[in-house]
Specification:
single chain, alpha+beta, VC0802-like, seven-stranded antiparallel beta sheet, CASTOR_ACT_dom, ACT-like_dom_sf, Acetyltransferase, DUF2241
Length: about 140
Amino acid sequence: MLRDLAMLIASMEPELQPGVYVFASLPHDAVVSGAGIVATFREREGMTVVMEEEAARAANIEPLFRAAWITLTVHSDLNAVGLTAAFARALGDANISCNVMAAAYHDHIFVPLEDGGRALDVLRDLQGSAGKLSASPEP
């Protein structure tokens, strides 16, 4: 488990997950289950669900946002500081919005579907530049 920011970025290994994912909002009392569910989060206004687009379509759930899902495969410590800010800044500089979910082992980034490939390139560029910095000898 890594905490050092330069090492985290240099080791993040972004991976584009296959498929299309959607964010949707459901009533608090909605029962959600099934293989298509990726994540849920309860908010005051309702329950946000992230799920495979086909599963949402089959359940007649109206999507709010269609996304590509990128996983940073590095096992980052939940107490690590700066990783989210670093990749969010890189994506923002490329004019790509991101919705981030930190889980126990990895960070997951949902970007607009049409920006998935470009976001992956931006993250790989960030990773490569961090690798060069961490490999440089100190003065």
